[in-house]
Every structure is written in structure tokens, then in C-alpha cells.
Here is the input.
Amino acid sequence: MPDLVRNFIGGEWVESRSGATFNTYNPATEEVIAPVAQSGSADVNAAVDAAKEAYKNWRLTPAPRRGEILFRVAQLLAERKEQLASLMTQEMGKIISETRGDVQEAIDMAYYMGGEGRRLMGYTAPVEMPNKFGMALRDSVGVIGLITPWNFPIAVPSWKILPALIAGNAIVFKPGEDTPATAAEFVRVFQDAGLPPGVLNLVLGAGEVGDFLVTHQGVRVISFTGSTQTGLKVYAKAASIGKKVSLEMGGKNAIIVLDDANLDLAVDAITWSAFGTTGQRCTATSRLIVQSGIKPQLVEALVEKARGLKLGNGLDESVNMGPLVNQKALEKVSGYIKIAKHEGVKVLIGGERPSDMDKGFFFQPTLFDGVERGMRVEQEEIFGPVLSIVEVGSMEEAIEVNNGVAYGLSSSIFTENVNAAFRAIRDLTTGIVYINHGTTGAEIQFPFGGTRGTGNGMREAGQVGLDSFTEWKSVYVDYSGRLQRAQIDTERILNG
Ligand code: UN1
Here is the structure.
């Protein structure tokens, strides 16, 4: 049996206080990868205490020095990219080229936020009195709690850990229970890059561990990525004790294809956005909204392309699609096939587990045709390799269908008409809009997040990604050496 995957608290790799463990599995083979520390409230308390203690010095460490540690993180991630990607594929199933991309997002973010060490821009503005100076500074907040999912086991935590660190905060990190080993190796990179003990702490376990973090009085901010169902519970609990919360939740993203679109480009983008990561991205395309004229050729080409996808263990470079993450995910996706059939939808291809694979949580790429607005498969996030095809007559109708869901993360339109493209940019109500590109592939230098049920108005990444992890401090410096306040207040009262 391989070594226990441990918590990282106060700079030490430790077992859980109770000694309890659970296992992490390979979803392609169903084999155990390693036992993992199962944390409880005592572990979370210890991690928060360690973070509080470490925060005292970390907040005073000059931001350019903090940035240098982040640059070392970027270098180490680049050196370990292949091992990290391989472990990630084994632990959550997506194919190796995608797990390399996942690590790359963290490298990009580490360089980007490392550079923030010499920016962290605030601003100055003129003030009302002579001999007085005003400025607004970004300040650290304290101890930050991070709760992240298994589908981007390094990229998504990196969008939170790196800005939180550069801003001078200390962290308690609770990763998805399906990817603890990958999370631990990611945290080891920060240790090896010279991050002081206690600044980044890792607590492993199931949802209740996140709960302890959410309700802990010592944690000032919660940044959560995961399902809408869990996110809203986190929000309510954290709000009741006055915490700042950043939420990134579900999606029901669509690609719109107009009659004048470049067919080959659209087919390629739809295939990869719908079936990449086995459809388990919050940015995945799960609806194709297609204009009637191009529909027959497009659907034919998509069926062809989906049929050609090779399923298997993602470590094999020739494989196009790995398994779903676990048995529960398989049951959820299978459940939607029943719902679709019940709703009168036609299954063009897929709709079941591959018959020639007896191990692993594999599911065939699936295309639903004849999907109507308002059907459950058109409205609900399935989080699997399932694409619902909705036919429309016009661009206006397409945009209405796109916007008519409870989520608002990503959307896309394929057209060669520049006027149509710009109208779509104006009218699509998602946080991310693509023109002639699939719904996935967001870059770390722009805000990432969505409208409606996808979030709570916060964004990750880019400059605004710092907002969750900083407080504004407005500073007034009066260097006149005399009493000015009484004078201006009196003038205001007289004039008012
Ligand atoms: C997610 O699915 O939670 O844009 C994140 C993308 C990736 C990130 C996805 N860069 O698809």
C-alpha cells in the first residue's frame, strides 16, 4: 500500500488527529491509489491556529519577496509538470494532455500573481484640504478558507491560493475528496519553494471538513468552487456569521451556431467543449443551439466525430476521453438519460456505458436531438459527456434560449458575420463570451466567473481576482500641522 496522503499543518505533514482514513481511487481502473487522512474539526482548528500564527509575519513580508516565492512555485511546477499531470490523470481521469493544461494554468497564475508583488495597485486621489494626502491601499484580510473541486485539482486552487498569498493572507485549503493526492503534491511545491510554515495549510476529507472551515470564527473569507447546491449552503452559513464569500458554481453553457458559420471550426469546438474533461467542466458545452439551415450537416458531422472518440485510460496518449470521476457521477449521468427519454428526446449516439469496458466509470459521448426549451436536460447541469441539441430559427431566438437558464458562466457563437458577433457580445448574459471558439479555455489574466446561479457577483483571476482576498484601506495624511477639520465642517454646515 502506498504512503498515507497527509494533512499539512504548520509546515508538518501529519495524520489526522483521530487517525481516521479514507481511500483515493483511480476512476479508470477502480484501484486504490492511496489511503488519505480523514480530517475532523480538531484538524481544522489546528490548521486555522497555524494560519493565524503564520499570518503575523507573512502580512509584514514585503510583497515583492512574497512574489519571489511565487516565481519559485512557477518554476517548480514547470519542473514537476509531468509528474503532477500523471498523478492527476490517475486520480480523476481526464486525459494527460488536459492535466498538463491544468498544471499550466497554475504556472501562468503563479507568474501573474508573482508580478503582482510589485504592483498590488491602489490609488491616490486629491483631497479637500491643503496639505493633506489621500490614498487607498489593498490590505490583507487574515485567514482564508478555500474549498475546491476535483475537476481542476491544481488550476482552480491556484486561482485562489496565489492571489491570497501575494496579498499577504494565510490559508487553510480543503480540496475535493476525489483528488487529495494531487492537492498534497501541489501544496508540497509551495513548501519546497520556501513558503514559511503555517502560511498554507491543507486539510483533507469530505464535505463536513469544509463545513468546519465555513463556520470557524477565525476564518474571514471563504472562496468556494463547486456545485450550486453546496455553494448556496456555504453562502448561507458563512453569511450568517458575516464572512465574505466568493462562489463559482454550476453552468449550462451553450454554443450557438448560425447558418453562415464555418462548419469545420464549429464541429471541432463543439466536440472538445462538450466531451473534453468528459464534460466535467463548469465551462463545458452542454447545449448546442443551432439554426435550422446548418443543422443537418452539423449534426451529421458531430455524430461522426463523437463516434471516432477513443475512450480509455487518460495516461494513454492516444485516448481522447477518460472516465467520469466516480460511481456517483456515473449514476447521475445515467439518470439523465432516463430523464431525456422520458422527455421524448432522441438519443442520436451514446447514452450508455461502453459495452467493451468492464472497469472504470466510463460513459459514451452522448448527443440528444429534439431538445426543447425548458426540458430538464436543457436546463439542468448534467456534468458529463452529454450534449443537448436545440434547433432555432433565428439568432434572436438563439440568444433567448442561451440566456434562459438559471446559470450564466460561458457562451459562444459561431458566425462569419461581424454584426451578428457584436450583437451577441452585447446580448449574451454570461460572464464569459466566445466568438468562433468553444466555451472552454479561459485564460488566467481575465476575470473568470458567471452571472445568475453561477456565482454571487465575484470573479476569480485577473486583477479583480484579488478582490476576494483583500480589504481596501483608505488612508488620510494631514501634514498641515494645524486644525483644519473644524473649519471645513463649519463651512459645510453653513453652506448646507
Ligand atoms: C472549471 O471547469 O471549473 O476555461 C474551470 C476553462 C478552464 C477552467 C475551467 N480554463 O475551461
User: Anything to note?
Assistant: The chain has two domains: 7-249+455-474, 253-435. Residues 253-435 form a domain with the Aldehyde Dehydrogenase; Chain A, domain 2 fold (CATH 3.40.309.10).
